Amino acid sequence: xxxxxxxxxxxxxxxxxxxxxxxxxxxxxxxxxxxxxxxxxxxxxxxxxxxxxxxxxxxxxxxxxxxxxxxxxxxxxxxxxxxxxxxxxxxxxxxxxxxxxxxxxxxxxxxxxxxxxxxxxxxxxxxxxxxxxxxxxxxxxxxxxxxxxxxxxxxxxxxxxxxxxxxxxxxxxxxxxxxxxxxxxxxxxxxxxxxxxxxxxxxx
Length: 204
Fold this sequence. Notes:
Shape: elongated
Low-confidence stretches: 1-35, 38-47
Mean pLDDT: 76
Number of helices: 6
Radius of gyration: 33 Å
Strand order of the largest sheet: 1-2
Distance between the termini: 32 Å
Helix content: 40-55%
Largest sheet: 2 strands, antiparallel
């Protein structure tokens, strides 16, 4: 009888869903002689959304904290990895450059205090090209630049972690065509004008 065939098919689908199959059952996995009698609403949709992984955002953030860019690789956003390293590399470069220049002015100032006049900022004349006060001001400015560069680098490092965490959250949202937010553009022939807006489409 047709009802017995439907019950048999439902049992096969129920058993297959708990038997560890790697693919969602469809009519292809049902014998040919009974799949034709199964109502359409019984066939399982192959586009069923994967269950959410609540640990994915924390895992992505942890990976980026251990190694910047690793969380982006975990999220399969590989194009972000060069951006992460370029941003961090720029911050580190400016810190090292300011630190090196700061050491030059500090060493020159120390030699001035020791009575020497052979530093690179003194010059060839009897009057120093950069005065002692100028050396002090340069050291203060470079020290602030060092601290600012270090602060920006740590900020970019934290932003790398936040980006991986937020990305892992967003990747688990339902972004299929059944729920979509799209721009709306339509030409109004009666008023000879255009209508701009945003439409929210929800299909079920």
